């Protein structure tokens, strides 16, 4: 394959993974019939706008529901809205929550509390919901929660640790949305963006029992060296902020179904690669860890392939992390992974790699124009050398976006309206493993 053919194939595989997880595909088969009363659609996360659009269309076209029986609110990331008529869609901050998310969470809780025994609450939950549904516990203001979120994101903490803290500083997360809706029936449908698809971690589990405790939240802050604000420390020592556990009556009339997961996106990408004659090796469906360390491992595997009869792809899912040590750098774990590959595969020939977040945003400042990741190959290094750029220097400053903007290797998709975690593919061509240039 030519360099352009490799890049094209990688993008086709990534797009196939994203398409397999779109709400239009995975939500309708799981939507229940309407009750005697109202259907109240409550959605949060990067796919919330599309979920609301799909659910509204389903209940209008299948059951003829009008605004007297169909209502709701979806809170999604800025730039991820979709057109609806009966279910309101608003945009809010991510990954750092903002005032719009504060109001959206309050209005969502109000709608849940208004639900009666004859009503149905359909909770459509996607990754990013933790930031979009922000409802600080008593004694906390938004600025304190924003600062805590920023510190955890910079610390390199994995998503389950971050969400353990979030759940114990919230009035909506950790099962509290279900508590607000009780005794109405709650049907939660989730598009998973977390390793192992843990319902209590997806968007911080607003409708399911929470196995984590206040002590776990305090331990997470200590483990990742985040010094809590005094109000946070107080909240995490207050028994009133403990989340509802299994057996709580709040969950007596609830159900939870994961309707799409990272493995589905991985399977679609694998099929695209195999249909193109590529031999695929899954190196991990739920990978976690420091992005640059995982990249070093995958680069070692690529270099060790030896002579291969046909193109080989190393594919992985999961969610990597970045411990930020630089100042002013831009980028997320996918771009940092790709930049580390550029460094670690220097001198290696006939390869290409794509690393992207299936929601279309990898790090960034919360703009719809943020990169989804990067596509790299030996040409990346050549362009960098021509511009006097050193991958290791940019990596040390956590400035992967800055590097790839210079080399032209940024992956931009715009909002995809779904979120099933990251997708990484390293493609080594037939003779690539035995061909090297001086590094």
From TrEMBL:
InterPro entries: GK-like_C_sf (IPR037035), GK_N_sf (IPR038614), MOFRL (IPR007835), MOFRL_assoc_dom (IPR025286), MOFRL_protein (IPR039760). Residues 312-422 form the MOFRL domain. SUPFAM superfamilies: GckA/TtuD-like. Coiled coil: none annotated. GO terms for cellular component: cytoplasm. Residues 10-235 form the MOFRL-associated domain. Residues 357-380 are annotated as: Disordered. GO terms for molecular function: glycerate kinase activity. It holds the Pfam family DUF4147. Gene3D superfamilies: Glycerate kinase, MOFRL-like N-terminal domain, MOFRL domain. PANTHER family: GLYCERATE KINASE (PTHR12227:SF0). This is Hydroxypyruvate reductase.
């Amino acid at each position: 394959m030519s360099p352009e053919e490799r890049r094209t194939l990688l993008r086709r595989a990534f797009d196939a993974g994203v398409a397999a997880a779109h709400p239009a595909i995975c939500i309708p088969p799981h939507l229940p019939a309407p009750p005697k009363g109202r259907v109240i659609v409550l959605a949060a996360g990067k796919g919330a706008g599309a979920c609301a659009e799909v659910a509204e269309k389903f209940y209008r076209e299948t059951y003829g529901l009008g605004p007297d029986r169909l209502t709701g609110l979806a809170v999604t990331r800025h730039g991820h809205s979709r057109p609806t008529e009966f279910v309101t869609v608003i945009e809010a901050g991510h990954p750092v929550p903002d005032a719009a998310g504060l109001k959206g969470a309050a209005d969502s809780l109000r709608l849940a509390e208004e639900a009666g025994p004859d009503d149905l609450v359909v909770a459509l939950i996607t990754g990013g919901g933790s930031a979009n549904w922000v409802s600080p516990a008593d004694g906390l203001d938004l600025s304190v929660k924003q600062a805590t979120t920023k510190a955890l994101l910079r610390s390199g903490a994995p998503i389950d640790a971050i969400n353990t803290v979030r759940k114990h500083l919230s009035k909506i997360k950790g099962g509290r949305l279900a508590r607000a809706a009780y005794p109405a029936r709650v049907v939660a449908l989730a598009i998973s963006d977390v390793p192992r698809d843990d319902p209590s971690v997806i968007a911080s589990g607003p409708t399911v029992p929470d196995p984590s405790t206040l002590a776990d939240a305090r331990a997470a802050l200590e483990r990742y060296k985040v010094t809590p604000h005094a109000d946070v420390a107080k909240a995490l020592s207050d028994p009133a902020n403990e989340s509802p556990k299994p057996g709580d009556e709040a969950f007596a009339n609830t159900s939870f179904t994961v309707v799409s997961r990272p493995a589905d996106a991985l399977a679609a990408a694998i099929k695209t690669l195999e249909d193109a004659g590529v031999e695929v090796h899954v190196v991990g469906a739920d990978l976690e860890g420091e992005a640059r360390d995982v990249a070093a491992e995958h680069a070692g595997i690529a270099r060790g392939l030896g002579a291969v009869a046909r193109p080989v792809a190393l594919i992985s899912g999961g969610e990597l992390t970045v411990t930020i040590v630089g100042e002013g750098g831009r980028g997320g774990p996918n771009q940092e992974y790709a930049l580390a590959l550029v460094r670690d595969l220097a001198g290696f020939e006939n390869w290409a790699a794509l690393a992207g977040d299936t929601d279309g945003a990898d790090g960034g400042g919360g703009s719809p124009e943020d990169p989804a990741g990067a596509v790299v190959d030996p040409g990346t290094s050549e362009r960098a050398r021509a511009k006097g750029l050193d991958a290791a220097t940019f990596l040390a400053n956590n400035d992967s976006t800055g590097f790839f903007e210079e080399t032209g290797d940024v992956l931009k998709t715009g909002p995809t309206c779904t979120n099933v975690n990251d997708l990484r593919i390293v493609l080594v061509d037939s003779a690539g493993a035995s061909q090297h240039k001086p590094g």
